[in-house]
Design goal:
The structure is a single chain. By secondary structure, the protein is an alpha+beta fold. It folds into three domains: 83 residues, Phosphorylase Kinase, domain 1 (2-Layer Sandwich), CATH 3.30.200; 176 residues, Transferase(Phosphotransferase) domain 1 (Transferase(Phosphotransferase), domain 1, Orthogonal Bundle), CATH 1.10.510.10; 183 residues, 3-Layer(aba) Sandwich (Protein Transport Mog1p, Chain A). It is 22% helix and 24% strand. The chain is built from nine helices and 20 strands. Strands 13-14-15-19-18-17-16 form a seven-stranded antiparallel sheet, with helices on both faces. A six-stranded antiparallel sheet has the order 1-2-3-4-6-5, with helices on one face. The chain has a three-stranded antiparallel sheet with strand order 11-12-20. α6 packs antiparallel against α7. The chain is globular. The structure holds adenosine-5'-triphosphate. It is an enzyme of class 2 (transferase). InterPro entries: Kinase-like_dom_sf, Prot_kinase_dom, Protein_kinase_ATP_BS. It comes from Murinocardiopsis flavida. This is non-specific serine/threonine protein kinase. Its EC number is 2.7.11.1.
Length: 473
């Protein structure tokens, strides 16, 4: 949520207009504090565009009108590949101004981080590009003042995605900002000096926000209110110490301790990215955060979906529950006592650093929220589909860092329907045994990634879970 000066609210609801000038309106993309953004089509140049229109209830407020025009001017003048580009500007019949921008067709960085912490190399690439966008603004003599993941949009490009820094609604010229400045920004991302009414700010306010964005991309959460005392590695062990140092210095309440500007911050991110020993991927215990959060939001957690408990296929003393994921493709047989909480909403192998969208996935555990916590006394099974090419190199290509200390026992899957391998650690972080498996259906070639956590080190249970698993095409 954006912190707004008193008296500022959301724009009034408006119906869908047909056109803004030559731009044919397709649909509404969203509304901010002062404006609504529409997806439109430029029929003359045959290209989609985003059109930002000042809200009716603010059209006669001179300072808001001025700020809106200023946003368009800065973006036009800066004219950078790392910023949203402004192509045109106009006025509606009722005198409201609008400006026409590049349409960012891949959502925002906030959408990505909502799925969980990002693989390190991906997070560093995004930070480099965001830093370049903010550097362009600083060179132009502008402080953004509201850098956050939802204001960083993504555009598809021939080599993947490109970052576009957007929403300069609070931007201020460096010359004006040294005097009296109204408080503005978004809690969680704004520097301590921005929340002081009348305080003076400089480009280092944006450096603080860059630090906050870095913290969120790495840990999945924005930092606590300043002063921030724990580095991101506290939440995500294994990060390079130089990255911890950079994020903590950017988040320093004393701005003289921060990197001098966006350029200095970005140069240090680049140097960390180039280090030969940079770890990749996301530690295994962070992977399911996204799935758990998504499940919580759609209330899929906390009950067993398809019951039908039977002891027919069980090991002595163990009754199995048969479960199915939301897509209906994965079926699992899980020891009944472990299936107290079930989340069926899928997962994203992207969180393992594998290029892929959301895939079917299922987690059944005694406590789904603790699944990723090392040392937690949790038992259960996770199963998620993998793109076939991702597992071609076996488990080596899926697990990038050892989830437990010591060497696992490795064995091939012996099952009439599945091939693949299982790695099993007998004692994992003092919390029982952990097994990981990448298994390929012999008939269809479908690949499934499995994890089993259990208090004892029973191979027979892992084998039975594999044997009780089916995947529909
Ligand atoms: N160029 C664009 N391409 C695609 N979507 C855009 C573009 N510009 C803005 N949007 C989307 O339009 C919506 C409104 O954007 P806007 O910048 O007006 O406000 P906001 O950032 O959501 O809120 P606030 O200004 O209050 O912080 C957002 O969902 C944003 O992602």
């Amino acid at each position: 949520m954006t912190f707004e000066p008193p008296g500022i609210g959301k724009p009034q609801a408006v119906g869908q207009p047909e056109r803004f000038g030559r731009y044919r309106v397709l649909r509404r993309l969203g509304s901010g504090s002062f404006a609504t953004v529409w997806l439109a089509h430029d029929d003359l140049l045959d290209t989609p565009v985003a059109v930002k229109v000042l809200a009716e209830n603010w059209a006669h407020q001179l300072d808001v009108h001025h700020r809106f025009m200023e946003e368009a001017r800065i973006l036009r003048q800066a004219d950078s590949a790392w910023l949203v580009r402004v192509h045109d500007i106009g006025t509606l019949a009722d005198d409201r101004p609008y400006f026409v921008m590049t349409y960012a067709d891949q959502g925002s960085v906030a959408d990505q981080v909502a799925r969980g912490p990002l693989p390190l190399d991906h997070a560093l690439r995004l930070l480099t590009e965001i830093g370049q966008g903010v550097t362009v603004l600083h060179r132009h003599g502008t402080i953004h003042r509201d850098i956050k993941p939802s204001n960083v949009l993504l555009l598809s490009s021939p080599v993947g995605q490109r970052v576009l820094v957007a929403d300069l609604g609070f931007a201020k010229s460096i010359d004006e900002a040294s005097g009296f400045t109204a408080a503005a920004g978004t809690p969680g991302y704004m520097s301590p000096e921005q929340s002081v009414l009348g305080g003076d700010i400089d480009v280092r306010a944006d450096v603080y926000s860059l630090g906050a964005v870095a913290y969120e991309l790495l840990t999945g959460r924005h930092p606590p209110a300043p002063p921030v005392s724990a580095p991101p590695s506290r939440k995500r062990p294994g990060l390079p110490p130089a990255l911890d140092e950079l994020v903590m210095s950017a988040l320093s309440p004393d701005r003289s301790l921060r990197p001098a500007d966006a350029q200095a911050f970005t140069d240090r991110i680049r140097a960390i990215r180039m280090a030969p020993d940079l770890p990749s991927g996301v530690p295994w215990w962070l992977r399911h955060r996204a799935a758990v959060l998504r499940a919580a939001s759609v209330l899929l957690v906390l009950f067993t979906v398809l019951a039908g408990s039977t002891g027919a296929s069980a090991a002595p003393g163990v009754g199995f529950k048969h479960l199915r994921d939301a897509s209906g493709r994965i079926r699992l047989a899980v020891p009944g006592p472990w299936a107290g909480q079930v989340q069926t909403a899928g997962w994203s192998p992207r969180e393992l650093g594998i290029a892929s969208g959301d895939e079917p996935g299922l987690l059944a555990a005694t406590d789904v929220a603790e699944w990723r916590t090392p040392g937690a006394a949790v038992s259960g099974v996770f199963a998620g589909l993998l793109p076939a090419e991702a597992a071609r190199g076996g488990l080596d290509s899926v697990i990038d860092s050892a989830p437990c200390s010591g060497e696992p026992t490795r064995r091939a899957v012996r099952d009439p329907r599945w091939s693949g391998e299982i790695w099993q650690w007998g004692a994992c972080a003092d919390s029982g045994s952990f097994a990981a498996a990448a298994i390929r259906a012999k008939r269809t070639g479908t690949v499934l990634y499995l994890e089993v956590r259990q208090p004892e080190d029973r191979r027979d249970l892992v084998d039975q879970i594999v044997a009780g698993t089916t995947v529909q095409l």
